C-alpha cells in the first residue's frame, strides 16, 4: 500500500519508511549490502509528480487547393520534426527522473545510516508505528469512480457523517448528473470510508449500522445504500468489495450481543439522547443473495 501510494503522508516520512525497510532487510548500513531498486522502497508516483507537465503537441499544418502537394511534403517534414521533438523531450524527462531518483536514494541512505544498531523487530515496529498514524490504517482501499449520489425513496436523513465530526454531505459534493469523481473506497473492520486520493482525512465515513444494503447493479457498478442515499460506484472490483463487506458484516453481527425485546410498543430513539461517537442504527440489514448476484 505504501509503494502504491495508498498511505497519504509526507515525502520525509516516506523516506524514513524506506530507510526502516532497508534496516529490516539488511541490518546496519554497509557499502556491500544489496540495494533494492528504488521502486521497491519508495512510491514511484512521487518522483513522477516532480516532473513538469508535458506540453501539448503543436497542430499540424493545413493544406488547401494547389498547395496540397507542397503541404503534404511539409506535413511529412513536420511529422518527422515532431517525432524528433518528442524523443528529445522524453530523453530529458528520463534524465530528470534519474536525477530525482538518485537524490531520493541518497536521502534514504542518510536516514538508513542513522538507524545503526536497530534490530529487525525494532525496525519493523517503528515502520508499522509510522503507518498507523494514518487514520485509515487497516482498511483495504479500492479505486472507484463515484458516478452518482441519489436520494432513496421515502428515506429520511439522520446525519451526514460521523457523530461529533463536521462533514460535508456527499449528496452536495456530487449531485446526480455531475461528472464522476475518482475516489478511494476504504473498507475497514468498523466502517466504510470515502477518501479523495492522497488526502489523509475521509470525505465521509459510515459505520455498518448506517449501511442498509449493498449490491451490484451490473458487472462494473456497485451500489451502497446509506440511510437516505444510494451511492453508485464504477469499479472493476465489484465482487471483491462485496465479499469484503459481507465478511465484515458477519463479523460485526457475531460480536453483537443478543438483545431481549422491551415490553410495550417500540419507540424511535431520540437522536439527541444517543451517545456521541456512536453511529445510529439503521434498519434491518438486507443481505445479498449467495449466488454472486447482489441485486440491483
TrEMBL record:
Ranges for domain FERM: 1-259
Organism: Asarcornis scutulata
Pro residues bias (residue ranges): 259-269, 286-296
Matches recorded under InterPro entries: Actin_motor_Myosin, FERM/acyl-CoA-bd_prot_sf, FERM_2, FERM_central, FERM_domain, IRS_PTB, PH-like_dom_sf
Region named Disordered: 152-172, 252-296
Protein name: MYO10 protein
PROSITE patterns found in the cross-reference section: FERM_3
